[in-house]
Every structure is written in structure tokens, then in C-alpha cells.
Amino acid sequence: MCGIVGILGNHEAAPILVDALKRLEYRGYDSAGIATVDAGKLGRRRAVGKLVNLSDLLVHNPIAGKAGIGHTRWATHGVPNIVNSHPHRAKDVAVVHNGIIENFKELRDELSQNGVVFETDTDTETVVQLCMSYLKDGLSPKYAAAATIDRLEGAYALCFLFEGEDDLLIAARKGSPLAIGHGDGEMFVGSDALALAPMTDKVTYLDEGDWAIVTRTSLEIRDASGTLANREMRTIKVDLGTSDKGGYKHYMMKEIAEQPTVLAEAITHYTDPKTGGISVPGLDIDFANVDKITMVACGTAYLACSVAKYWFEQVARIPCEVDVASEFRYREPPMSDKSVAMFVSQSGETADTLAALRYCSDKVSKTVAVVNVAESSISRESDISLPIHAGVEIGVASTKAFTCQLIALVALVISAARARGELDAKSEQVLRTELTSLPGIINQSLAQQSEIDEVTIELSKASDALFLGRGAMYPLALEGALKLKEISYIHAEGYASGELKHGPIALVDEHMPVIVLAPKDDLFDKTVSNMQEVMARGGKVLLVTDPKGAETARDGVWKTIIMPPVHNMLAPILYAIPAQLIAYYTAVRKGTDVDQPRNLAKSVTVE
Ligand code: F6R
After folding, report:
1. By mean pLDDT, which of 226-230, 232-236, 276-280, 438-442 is the weakest?
2. How far apart are CA 350 and CA 380, in angstroms?
3. In this predicted structure, what is the pLDDT of residue 475?
4. Closest ligand 1 atom, CA of 350?
5. Which helix (DSSP H) or strand (DSSP E) does residue 18 occupy?
6. pLDDT (0 to 100) of residue 265
7. Any catalytic annotation for residue 602?
8. Residue 239: which pLDDT band, with cuts at 50, 70 and 90?
9. Residue 76: pLDDT above 90?
10. 478 Cα–ligand 1 center, Å
11. What is the distance between the alpha carbons of residues 395 and 99, in angstroms, rounded to a whole number?
């Protein structure tokens, strides 16, 4: 979703702004722009499409100034065109915005009645026009911005730049994250620490409702009531090396290939260095007295929760409910004060997941975040925050974050099961050994790349596909379908194998690839029966299984992909790899934009 950057620097701002916007590209965008102030004069440049278009424009039509703001826009109100691109400007003020101004119609009507003429379809233009109207009334930039912010409803991260002000940025945050970076005689504003990483590692995060007056040598933060606020400055570690493609054609492939390494890091984090046992550092929960677990997330993170539901119920014997965050709070679910609520999010900024956390925070015994971005809002607002150690994930389609989320969740399940007396020492020892070998097994599974690439010759010609799984492989079937549709644009559905004959089997014919994710577990024979039903109707089955499964059931299937054997509980982690590779190679064959699929954003900071 939209990315914001602001600079009060000692060098020309335009190239630094564009460079910072490049590091925000992963969030997804459809236009970009910058504005600068040079000797008091405000100027701006905007371009539709990729940042290279903005860079080209700046070559032919450069813009000077050491103070500036920049933006990558993911369209919400109004189509992605130049006029709707940010920064928005009304004479003496320019603004970049991430979020949605919910009362923009009301403000627009009010301003229109006072003679203001709007140029764009966006909610953000009301912010600049409102601010300009306060400037016209004689307010100084600082007070005009404050008066504007005071009128806004909805979600926003904002950064204001003013004509005549070479040393002033006003930043504000409500609902969308915003960080202030501290340099040496320079100051920065950014949607996240990654945007600011080459400029500074010293960052102050604004809290909800905060707004800040930023100059090159000072930072004044005020809370929503206008009171001076003291927010901690932190030193953030961002590994910039992880934000290049490392020789791969796409970030997504790099991130798929990184899984053995990052999973090993996550497993190490959740292993007690003294005993070698699974442990969750800082886990202050009495699981023996927990009556229910509620897990809330969106998209792929929701599917990680759906896998963990099987584990919490089967292994730790705790009732577990999983909900998509965009529905959760509107259902107004009653919560038990003996329950634990968990929020799983790669970015830690997903607006609906954050809102679900806020709904639960005073209703349950503990809130737990499982996040990749340690400094994110979901992490900071939860009682307990568990890292997943996936490293920066740039590809819009989540891959390594999914498998690393599952490692953190396995560790939680094992801790809970132990505390409830549901896991004997021998079974725990077996699981621990299997977990330790998992990165190596994942590595072996990556060796199947050419077989998977080959099956995508046919898959990429399909217009629809079905993914089937049973038990904890069912959410994985949903994840396989989600990955395929989001990056290859092939319509795909995931089904519980047993549900097939209750409707979707009507879709099956010789053109329909059916991908069956089925390790040889206790449910395998049942899944094979469902697979036979598909083949009896001419369906083309791609079976992803292990050597024993292949030995029993490969007859009549179109293609078989053989995974290394793995402990049943860990199979959803291993089988994520072929699901990701199937989507990846299909998309590459179709020539789609793998890392930034159309219409999608990496960090969904609006409802
Ligand atoms: C799919 C995908 C999305 C995210 C979802 C939640 O590949 O990446 O479905 O999983 O938008 O995002 P986070 O995990 O950042 O809350």
C-alpha cells in the first residue's frame, strides 16, 4: 500500500527520495511522485506506473531542493492517473498520505461551498485544500497543519511540505504507521524503517494520534490532545543486504530459496540453548488455565493460523477459533477472560488485524503477536510479541513469512501442550529432532524445482485449477490456490478433499488440473478415494506426496511430485514449498509481474 518518505537533508533531495521510494516499492503501488522546496519554491513531479517512469521524468525535467516528500500510491479513491497521484498540492502546501480520510466528502462539500475547486477524485486532496484554507486564514504552516489534522477522520500517515519553508515537515499518524529518522543535521520521515535504512538507523515511531513538527535540528511530537509527547528513539537493525534479489530473477524466488536458512534461524530462536528443548522466550502464559485460543489474521497469515488450529486442538487439546480479521470485530464475538488471542501478520501493520487486536486487548487474558516486523504496530500493541525471523520479505506474495510463522506457532503449540500435560517427553523429543532436520528437508524439496517447472507448461495454459487437501493440508490447499491466483491470475480454489463431491466436482473435466497435496498420513487413503473420483471424471491430477504415497497411489495420475518424508505435524510447512513453486513457475511462464502482481499491496494498511 502507499509508501511515504520525507527528507530535510543537506544534499539534493530528489535522488534520495526516489531511492527511498524504491525500498517502499514492495508495498505495491500504481503511481509515484515527489515534491521539493528549493529556495522557498515548492515544485513537484509525478508519474503513473513504475518508479522508473518517475526517474525518467526527473532526468528530463529535474527538480532541485534539499527538502522534499515522496510517495508511492496504491489507488483507493480515483483511478491511478497523474492527477490523482501524490504529492497533492494546493498552492502553498503539498501532502503525501497513506490511508483513507473517511469524512472527505463532508470536508470537500464544505470547502466547495467556500469556493474551493477540486482537481482530483482523491480523499487526500481535501487535506491539502483544507490546510491551504487555514493558511489563507492567516495560520502559520504549523498551526494550519494542526488544524487540518484535527478535522480528519479515518486512517492516515501524512507528511506536509510548505512553500517558503525549506526546513519544515509536519508528520502525523493515525491508523497507518510513520517513523521519524534522525540523521546528522538531517531528519527523515518514512512509512517504515526500511525506507530510511541507508540514511539512518535511529528511528522514533509516532504513536496513534501523534503529530510532529520536524526541522533539521529538532523534533517536537504532540499527542492527539496537543500535549508534548516524549517518544523513545530506537536504533533499528535493518539488513539492507536482504533487500536485493541476490542474483535471482525475482524476490519471490529468492525468498522461496531462503527458507532453509530463515527456518533454521526461527528454529534456533525457539530452541533453549541450554537444554536444546523447544521454548518460547518471554512467553508469560499459563496455558494450563487457558480455555480457548482465538487467532485472527488476513490472507496467507490467516491460512498459517488455520494450520495451527489443527495443531492447537489435536496436540495441545485447546479449543481454537480462527477468523479473518476483516470480519472478526464486526461479529462482536464474546471473548472469555481466560482465553488468549493471537494476531499473525508478516507486516504487523495490516489494518484489520490491528483493529482485531484492539478489539480483544481488554477482553482476553493475553494478546500475542506473531510478526515479522519487530517494530510494527501489532507487535508494539500486543502483550507478547513473537518474532518469526523471516527477514525482509519483498515479494508481495508471502512465502518465507508463512513457513516461519508456522515455526513460531509450532513452538507455541509444543509449549502449550507441555504445560497442559498433553505431550509426553518422548513425543516432544521426536518432534524436536524432526524440527531440527526440517531446514535440511526443505532444502531437498527445493531440488524438485525442474520437475515443478515442467508441470507448469500445462498448468500455465489452464484457466482454472483446484487444490485439494485433508486435515492440516486443507489450509495448505487454500494457500496453494491463493498463491496461484495472486501471481498467475489463474482462477484457483482450495477445497477440503471430502467436500469435493458436495459441489465443486461439477467443475471437473479434462481441462481442469487438480493439485492434491497429500503426504502418506492417516487420512491419505481417504484423499486417494477423492482423487479417484476426480480421475474417473477425466480430471488431470497432480499428486504431491512422499515416496510411500507415490508407491501406493501414483497410478493414473497425470504427474507426481515426490517430497521427502517428514513428520506429519510438519508436513504443512514442507508442502508449502511445492505450492509456492507451482505458483511461481506458472506465473513466470505466463509472464506476469511476479513480485508486484496487479492490484495487490504488500502491506494493507486500510480496511
Ligand atoms: C498473500 C499475502 C497476503 C498477506 C495478507 C496479510 O500471499 O501475502 O494475503 O498474507 O495481506 O498480510 P500481513 O501478514 O502483513 O498481515
Report:
1. 232-236
2. 13
3. 98
4. 16
5. helix 13-24
6. 92
7. yes
8. low
9. no
10. 13
11. 22
- Give the contacts of 370 (CB within 8 A, at least 6 positions apart): 342, 343, 344, 345, 386, 388, 405, 408, 409, 412
List C-alpha distances in Å: 341 to 307, 327, 369, 384. 16, 15, 9, 10
Q: What is the pTM of this model?
A: 0.82
Look at residue 249 in the predicted model and tell me its pLDDT: 93
Let me know: does 272 contact 279? Beta carbons within 8 Å. Answer: yes
> Is 240 a residue whose pLDDT tops 70?
no
Q: Which of 26, 305, 347 has most ligand 1 atoms within 8 Å of its beta carbon, as the pocket-test mutant?
A: 347
Pocket of ligand 1 from Cβ distances under 6 Å: 298-301, 345-347, 350, 353, 397-398, 482, 486, 603-604
Given a cut of 90, whether residue 80 has pLDDT beyond it is: no
When pLDDT is averaged across residues 529-554 and rounded to a whole number, the result is: 93
Q: Kindly report the protein residue whose alpha carbon is nearest to atom 9 of ligand 1.
A: 299
DSSP 339-374: -EEEEEESSS--HHHHHHHHHHTTTSSEEEEEESST
Find the DSSP H helices in 554-600: 571-574, 576-590
Distance CA 78, CA 104 (A): 13
Which whole number is the average pLDDT over 238-265? 84
Cell 518518505 found at: 5
Mean pLDDT throughout 185-203? 91
All 3 cell numbers of residue 233?
Answer: 528513539
- In ligand 1, the atom with minimum distance to the C-alpha of 397 is 7
Whether residue 167 has pLDDT greater than 80: yes
Count of C-beta atoms within a 10 Å radius of residue 220: 12
Q: Tell me the residue length of the chain.
A: 607
Count CB atoms within 10 A of the CB of residue 590. 16
Per-residue pLDDT band for 606 (boundaries 50, 70, 90) equals: confident
CB-based contacts of 236-240 (< 8 A; 24+ apart in sequence): 236/193, 236/197, 236/201, 236/202, 236/203, 236/375, 237/201, 238/193, 238/194, 238/197, 238/201, 238/392, 239/391, 239/392, 240/197, 240/198
Q: Rounded to an integer, what distance in angstroms lies between the CA atom of residue 10 and that of residue 100? A: 32
